[in-house]
TrEMBL record:
Protein name, entry field: Glycosyltransferase involved in cell wall biosynthesis
Any GO MF annotation of the entry: glycosyltransferase activity
Residue ranges constituting the Glycosyltransferase subfamily 4-like N-terminal domain according to the UniProt record: 16-198
Residues annotated as domain Glycosyl transferase family: 213-380
Domain of life: Bacteria
InterPro entries linked to this entry: Glyco_trans_1, Glyco_trans_4-like_N
Length: 418
């Protein structure tokens, strides 16, 4: 089966960012015998710079997996240049796709809706099924985060959202909240499939010898209890409150944030202004190295803004922390909190509450070795049941295969009736 997989922000594992689509593509090639073309941007969103040829050459060559790097307009903050970035990627995806041979199925992913719209157009021209993956609920996320206020733009994006829901042959969501949200809009429940984020089990092995090295790289002392956040640094992540938790911590504690984004400079200013020497802000690292940093820390932090739209979030770092076996502090109420508490792998510290986060760190520090061992076991059991990327890739591939068979039958019936 020939699959086109498009995500503006997809990255291979040697870069920091969304590796979901590369990992799905590789599983489909290695385990299912598919031929996959992954369309991704040569401008790295999290690092705000173009990916150089040397970085691209570092990737293993995988027969059957084709990476199509598309130029997109550079930007450093969320202004009109980011809109141009989205438009340019979607336009070049459509233009490039016109001149390539037909896939069996076209899979296009949000968060922004322009890439899926270009994907739908190409699917009509190529006469193949179209699958829409919903990573974020646009435009609802933008509106509720006060990032979009123009009523005409909101109306246009809301229309486009509904249009894509109706026209997609299959919709893939990452959380139960998203599934319920889309079904509530009148979309048939059987059309929506829940394929959450996950982990390539076996892709990383703990190495106790590296623990001290990575603690040195974080800038923390051997005696400090370290809470680590690894991920995007944007307005939606509410990291100001994570940084400010450093004000409420005594000696012997540290907070480390790894990643990049439009809020990074403001976080540096908060750290400097409040003299938070126990807070460390690090640059992004490749996915493989993130696990070593998590292993060297004592717990992981999940942080999002106190907003209804994030009640249904299930970010990938939830799976990362459980995979490595670390207890979790979440500031996010809703689906993440339910998973953390029901599986006994961490604490809810309160939304946008620096003092609450600091108190949660103190509680986790006083866990016994036996309690920590049980947290590790529960986390890995959850990954085995719900977060194994290979199992999820196989499940999704089966749905795509069924969709392609159904599509061919429909086309043959249409020809006979015509």
């Amino acid at each position: 089966m020939r699959i086109w997989l498009a995500n503006h922000y997809a990255v291979p594992p040697n870069l920091g960012g969304i590796t979901r689509h590369y990992e799905l593509a590789r599983e489909w090639v290695d385990e299912e015998g598919a031929e996959v073309t992954l369309w991704l941007s040569s401008f790295n969103h999290s690092r705000r710079r173009f990916i150089d040829q040397e970085t691209k050459r570092e990737l293993d060559r995988v027969p059957g997996l084709h990476l199509r790097w598309l130029w997109s307009f550079p930007h450093t903050r969320n202004d009109f240049r980011r809109v141009l970035n989205m438009l340019s990627f979607a336009f070049l995806f459509f233009l490039s796709g016109l001149f390539r041979s037909r896939p069996d199925v076209l899979f296009a992913s949000s968060p922004h809706l322009l890439t899926p719209f270009a994907g739908w157009l190409l699917s009509r021209i190529k006469r193949c099924p179209f699958v829409l993956e919903v990573r974020d609920l646009w435009p609802d996320t933008l509106v509720k985060m006060d990032g979009l206020k123009n009523p005409r733009v909101i109306k246009a994006l809301t229309w486009l959202e509904s249009f894509l829901y109706r026209k997609a042959d299959k919709i893939v969501v990452l959380t139960e909240y998203q599934r319920k949200f889309i079904v509530a809009k009148g979309i048939e429940p059987e059309k929506v499939s829940l394929i959450p984020n996950g982990i390539v089990v076996g892709s990383w092995k703990p190495d106790p010898r590296k623990k001290s090295e990575y603690r040195r790289r974080m800038g923390v002392a051997p005696y400090q209890f370290v809470a680590l956040y690894a991920g995007a640094h944007g307005p939606a992540n509410a990291l100001e409150y994570v940084v400010r938790a450093g004000e409420h911590l005594p000696d012997g504690y540290a907070i480390v944030l790894i990643g990049d984004g439009p809020e990074k400079e403001r976080l540096r200013e908060i750290k400097a202004r409040r003299s938070l020497h126990n807070v460390h802000l690090l640059d992004p690292v490749p996915k493989g190295e993130v696990y070593h940093f998590i292993h060297a820390a004592d717990c992981g932090v999940i942080s999002l803004a106190d907003n209804e739209i994030f009640r249904g979030a299930r970010p990938n770092k939830l799976f990362d922390y459980m995979f490595v076996g670390k207890p979790i502090i979440t500031t996010v109420d809703g689906e993440v909190r339910d998973i953390v508490e029901e599986n006994g792998v961490g604490l809810f510290s309160g939304a946008e509450d620096p003092r609450g986060l600091a108190e949660a760190m103190k509680k986790l520090r006083h866990m016994t070795e036996e309690e920590r061992r049980r947290v590790t076991e529960r986390g890995r059991d959850y990954i085995e049941r719900f977060g194994d990327r290979r199992k999820l890739a196989h499940l999704l591939y089966g749905e795509l295969k069924s969709l392609v068979r159904t599509g061919w039958k429909a086309m043959k019936e249409a020809k006979r009736s015509g």
